[in-house]
Fold this protein.
Amino acid sequence: MERAARTGSAPRSRAPLSKARVLVTAVALADEGGVDALSMRRIAQALDVVPMALYKHVAHKNALLDGMIDVLVGEIDPPAQDADWKTAVRGRVLSARRMLLRHPWAPEVIESRMQARATPTPAVMAYLDSMIGLFRAGGFPIGLVHHAMHVMGSRLLGFSQELFQDTPRGDGPGGEPDPDEPSPEEMAARYPHITALAMAVAHDEDSVVGSGCDDQAEFEFALDLTLDGLERLLGRT
């Protein structure tokens, strides 16, 4: 204190630690050195705190990765106002693509965490719900929306890996439990379009892409859609 008074400078105050600061710092470190080099110790050093201080805000590494995904999804532009469904969907997907080009480590993390969790992270759920809403506002019946979500797959998030792998999700039949997962009533209120879609599609418990999906039918739908599009392009040549 005496030294600060002698030099005429005030002691430097440090911003309080928060979950947002932890996640933003983690994203920046992953951008610099890749997600494999990310550790609680490195994040703590960057924030000038002891590693144990981080666990008040992120319980473990998977919670950290989930939070980082939500930070990235928050970078995707909102839907264009007064645009038709095709323009709005295309604009958001291309915004997601730009986001992933800024964070090249992200596709692997998004894919692995979506496979591990019983449900996607809250920001991903909200984003997918809004995308379903764009299709519905464009006049798509719910069954065609279901097909569209499968066809688009991870392109909705800016990359082209298939989101629906034929592998088990998490350690159990429902994936990793989420202690903060809302009740069905809360889910319906937060994500009305996802809830409507889940309630409308036929359930196939043996499907490799998850309950509510016929993987063979979705595969053939996407294949036929692709071939039909190529056929139309061929007719223009």
The chain has eleven helices and no strands. The first helix runs from residue 2 to 7. The chain has a mean pLDDT of 84.
